[in-house]
């Protein structure tokens, strides 16, 4: 096998040499997936300190754990090579050369490693793997072994490994204690979520069936493993938690043996809800069909599916290869973490690339990730919002737990929508108040619904699912708001996105977006009353909605305490924030990220004005039309120096608002931080999984920040600004069924629209009305922009 399958260099992310200290980072970066499954980019043979992970969207379990985990599922890669009895891995052999390449254009991971055993004999191992995008139930692995300077007997072992566990907690050690890369993960306590059901081989097809212990989800794999040339010896080893095929081949120097492995995956929680023998037969049938097609055909079909995806969502910085790569890297990871075919799953904070945050879903989806999918892959956006309807029962239970009506979406949710945020840090020394006080999530969900319907005009979703969500969550806010002596309603004991401050009253972000939510819900109700009375009647009957409640939503929205301001007009983050200790930030790390001032950490900033991320800037980003340019300018100047960016969401928001308020230097700086958060590991924890919301923020910054796109209820507005060091920006959009290609240059903005022959689209460019016509290229001269 050669690297000939790899495409243009601009689509490649490369690793040169093996560095054990950064191995886990590359395992995250090189995740392959298809929205249904994600597999960390671990070496096939593994090594001490490797953090292997395979994650199936929606497969959760809480057995033997503090809260529910996204289960570390059976390993379908599971392959090792022995040469004359010596195992080829980084622990046993010397690594002479090592290169890996992620080809983002087609979603494949290629690897070539030359090992030297203790006698100095050299053997090359090459591999190629993919999780097929055209058939989300299928994964493929091709591995080639070549003794370079010696004759040898090569033993290739491959199988399905169900002996898996999840990281549970790291025992408490002194603060200055560090561990070697080999030891780091071995120190953790582990949770086991899988019990064996069946493992074996039938008609040359390997199979493995396991079941989650608590949630009782069956996971079935079937695999074929073809070795060429034909092996002299073949042995199948059955274990209680897996099955392995061992094939032995004698080779002369320079000869190669190749393994072609095809794997099919299915679970009992899939939409067809197969289980038992029917599920097993389903994956067997799938893997036979895929094997008959052959790996080469599967890879071609996968590449074609990726080409279709990139035609919908590609974006790039022209003239800066590093940032162009980073933007595409962000898009690649967004694509592989979302499944348009399953409305019961959503995107965890670490996507399907790691165990960080236990695979839980946060507000990040609606606030940060949904805009990307809404404007490039609306079918996926619909599925993500479908998850919120699927878990509405859990949201109702969350509200009832606090003796409130309606529904409250969890700060951290999993498969049911119930609150899954731990109550305490693993050592028990600090309480997580986010689970109790970050109630704004429900309004963020409403925000996501509005943005989706606005871009797609999918009124059917709004009537069938969205309205029920909006109405039930509005009921919660009516119960949650407290009447004060000043005549206002107050939202007390809350926490905004800035998690440094808990137990606050009248958080500006929460108050404003809740009022927005209530008015939107009332507007939807009124629109349905006149335009879809039958659908409204169905929802009203389902949730026993009294028409008088709608007027209450408007009254509550009008009575909620509006944001307070200081003498300069700065919106106060929460009541009393300006009275807190103003601690200056004076140090930055090697990635130009602020350090905690001496003596401070995540849990002791309560009495200061230090911010994890800025609520007010986030609010102005999400609801830009509700604030003046002056509001944004003074807020940015006040809050930016006090923000430590300990959330990876923060730099992207600052980049967008930096452009908005005319601070291009900081805008480019923050965009670069966001774009490189994982490629440069500038938060220091990429080893645990992708910062997937930051990936979405990178796209948003490029498109809605520098690319100048603003989405309004009536259409699209473009007012781009191009940094001096860039040559241009290209990006693609989907808007109400039309596909746009946008090219920003220094002096012009060009559009290409694909759609029906007579389709037109009215947009504005720097305040001028422009009509775009499908099949035609439209070029608009840009006025000079100073920022």
TrEMBL record:
Domain Glycoside hydrolase family 65 central catalytic: 328-700
GO biological process: carbohydrate metabolic process
Family (UniProt): Belongs to the glycosyl hydrolase 65 family.
Keyword Hydrolase: yes
Domain (Glycoside hydrolase family 65 C-terminal) ranges: 709-772
Catalytic residues identified in the record: 499 (proton donor)
InterPro entries tied to this protein: 6-hairpin_glycosidase_sf (IPR008928), 6hp_glycosidase-like_sf (IPR012341), Gal_mutarotase_sf_dom (IPR011013), GH65_N (IPR037018), Glyco_hydro_65_C (IPR005194), Glyco_hydro_65_M (IPR005195), Glyco_hydro_65_N (IPR005196), Malt_Pase/Glycosyl_Hdrlase (IPR017045)
A GO molecular-function annotation: carbohydrate binding
Annotated residues for binding of substrate: 363-364, 612-613
Domain Glycoside hydrolase family 65 N-terminal: 15-269
EC number, as in UniProt: 2.4.1.230
Keywords annotated in UniProt: Glycosidase, Glycosyltransferase, Hydrolase, Transferase
Protein name: Putative Kojibiose phosphorylase
This protein's record includes keyword Transmembrane: no
Domain of life: Bacteria
């Amino acid at each position: 096998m050669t690297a000939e399958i790899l495409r243009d260099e601009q689509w490649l992310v490369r690793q040169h040499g093996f560095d054990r200290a950064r191995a886990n980072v590359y395992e995250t970066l090189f995740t392959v997936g298809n929205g249904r499954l994600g597999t960390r980019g671990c070496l096939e043979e593994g090594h001490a300190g490797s953090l292997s992970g395979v994650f199936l969207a929606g497969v959760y379990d809480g057995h033997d754990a503090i809260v529910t985990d996204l289960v570390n599922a059976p390993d379908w890669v599971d392959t090792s090579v022995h040469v004359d009895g010596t195992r080829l891995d980084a622990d046993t052999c010397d690594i002479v050369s090592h290169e890996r390449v992620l080809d983002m254009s087609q979603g494949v991971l290629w690897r070539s490693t030359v090992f030297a055993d203790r006698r100095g004999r050299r053997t090359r191992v090459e591999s190629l793997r993919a999780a097929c995008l055209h058939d989300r139930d299928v994964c493929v692995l091709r591995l080639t072994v070549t003794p370079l300077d010696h004759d040898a007997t090569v033993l290739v072992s491959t199988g399905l490994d169900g002996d898996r566990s999840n990281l549970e907690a790291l025992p408490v050690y002194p603060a200055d204690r560090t561990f070697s890369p080999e030891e780091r993960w071995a120190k953790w306590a582990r949770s086991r979520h899988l019990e064996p059901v069946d493992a074996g081989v039938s008609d040359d097809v390997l199979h493995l069936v396991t079941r989650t212990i608590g949630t009782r989800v069956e996971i079935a794999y079937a695999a074929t493993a073809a070795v060429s040339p034909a092996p002299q010896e073949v042995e199948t080893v059955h274990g209680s938690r897996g099955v392995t095929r061992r094939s032995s081949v004698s080779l002369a120097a320079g000869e190669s043996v190749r393994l072609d492995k095809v794997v099919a995956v299915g679970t009992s929680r899939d939409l067809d809800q197969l289980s038992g023998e029917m599920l097993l037969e389903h994956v067997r049938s799938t893997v036979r069909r895929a094997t008959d097609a052959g790996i080469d055909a599967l890879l071609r079909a996968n590449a074609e599916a990726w080409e279709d995806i990139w035609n919908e969502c590609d974006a790039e910085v022209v003239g800066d290869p590093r940032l162009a790569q980073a933007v595409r890297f962000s898009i690649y990871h967004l694509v592989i973490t979302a499944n348009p075919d399953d409305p019961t799953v959503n995107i965890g904070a670490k996507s399907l690339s790691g165990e960080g945050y236990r695979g839980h879903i946060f507000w990040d989806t609606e606030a940060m990730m949904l805009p990307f999918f809404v404007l490039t892959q609306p079918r996926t956006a619909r599925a993500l919002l479908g998850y919120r309807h699927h878990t509405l029962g859990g949201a109702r239970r969350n509200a009832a737990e606090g003796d409130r009506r309606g529904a409250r979406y969890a700060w951290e949710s999993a498969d049911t929508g119930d609150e899954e945020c731990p109550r305490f840090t693993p050592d028990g020394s600090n309480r997580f108040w986010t689970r109790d006080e970050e109630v704004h999530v429900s309004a963020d969900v409403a925000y996501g619904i509005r943005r989706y319907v606005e871009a797609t005009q999918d009124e059917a979703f709004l009537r069938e699912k969205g309205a029920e969500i909006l109405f039930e969550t509005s009921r919660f806010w009516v119960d949650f708001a407290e009447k004060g002596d000043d005549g206002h309603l107050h939202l007390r004991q809350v926490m905004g996105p800035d998690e440094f401050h808990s137990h606050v009253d009248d958080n500006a972000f929460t108050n404003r977006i809740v009022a927005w939510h209530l008015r939107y819900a009332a507007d939807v109700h009124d629109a349905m009353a006149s335009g879809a009375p039958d659908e409204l009647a169905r929802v009203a009957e389902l949730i026993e909605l009294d028409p008088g409640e709608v007027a209450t939503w408007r009254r509550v929205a009008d009575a909620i305490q509006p944001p307070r301001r200081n003498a300069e007009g700065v919106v106060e983050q929460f009541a009393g924030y300006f009275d807190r200790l103003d601690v200056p930030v004076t140090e930055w790390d090697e990635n130009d990220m602020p350090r905690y001032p001496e003596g401070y950490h995540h849990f002791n900033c309560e009495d200061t004005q230090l911010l994890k991320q800025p609520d007010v800037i986030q609010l102005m980003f999400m609801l830009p039309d509700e604030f003046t340019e002056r509001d944004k300018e003074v807020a940015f100047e006040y809050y930016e120096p006090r923000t430590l960016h300990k959330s990876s969401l923060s730099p992207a928001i600052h980049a967008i608002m930096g452009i908005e308020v005319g601070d291009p230097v900081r805008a480019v700086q923050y965009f670069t931080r966001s774009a490189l958060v994982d490629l440069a590991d500038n938060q220091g924890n990429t080893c645990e999984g992708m910062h997937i919301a930051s990936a979405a923020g990178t796209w948003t910054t490029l498109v809605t920040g520098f690319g100048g796109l603003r989405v309004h209820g009536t259409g699209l507005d473009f007012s781009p600004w191009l940094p001096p060091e860039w040559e241009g920006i290209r990006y693609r959009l989907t808007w109400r069924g039309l596909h746009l290609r946008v090219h920003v240059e220094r002096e012009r903005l060009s559009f290409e629209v694909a759609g029906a022959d007579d389709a037109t689209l009215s947009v504005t460019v720097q305040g001028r009305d422009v009509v775009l016509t499908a099949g035609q290229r439209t070029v608009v001269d840009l006025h000079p922009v100073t920022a």
